[in-house]
């Protein structure tokens, strides 16, 4: 009998869904988190990164050896660097220079080339430069912000996994919103199973900087975003997101980033309004890529 061994690409997805034990407090609700940091490159972005490259290949838009360009604040870049290494592409990533050292190091470890823009230029500037380079023929932009292969990855994997793991009992889904691929794909799937499932998106309050999520200016709003797929948007303060992130590590043993702390903080707020609900929040990455920022230092 020939054993069929998996490749690293086969290990993307199928992440655990676990119950909060202490942070939930006394409640009739079930609070669950999906551990996307368990993906091979360490974040929920592994799913759309592999989807965008694989589906572009199937359409004949790209072929191994081509140069791919993408603007990223971190997790998508790391995931695309891994996917490009798996598939045999040259990967150029453009990101703001205030991204953590761990993120930059992870991207280059996978063989990607980095171009840094200033903190002031930010993700908008990174996206503009990626488009300019593509126009100049320097490579192809996958464009996670406008690429339907991003949310479709979550429609085909993340959403079905959550539905199956909760036995269809999920009542509320909470996710941070950056490119919005996760919330768009999961919302579409869950609403098809049960239109009453409430989809809750998270964005930073004005003046709050939470890595990976944004309040986009209208002209930069991701084209994949459809506001009708989100039932409620929660504004999250940076300090609250960071506090819950630290508590997740110290009280639950769940080591994650700031946007994940924000998603759980929003879920805890929701839980106080509800009874006998089953809430699921996305833990989108691992905390080790934020250590150099000092966010886990004693508070």
UniProtKB/TrEMBL annotation:
Matching entries from InterPro entries are given as: Cys_synth, Cys_Synth/Cystath_Beta-Synth, CysM, P-phosphate_BS, TrpB-like_PALP, TrpB-like_PALP_sf
Query: For this UniProt entry, which residues form the secretion signal?
Result: none
Pathway linked to the protein: Amino-acid biosynthesis; L-cysteine biosynthesis; L-cysteine from L-serine: step 2/2
Q: Please report the stretch or stretches of sequence annotated as the Tryptophan synthase beta chain-like PALP domain.
A: 9-285
- Where do the coiled-coil regions begin and end? none
Q: Which reaction does it catalyse?
A: O-acetyl-L-serine + hydrogen sulfide = L-cysteine + acetate
The protein's name is: Cysteine synthase
What taxonomic lineage is listed for the species of origin?
Bacteria, Pseudomonadati, Pseudomonadota, Gammaproteobacteria, Pseudomonadales
Encoding gene per record = cysM
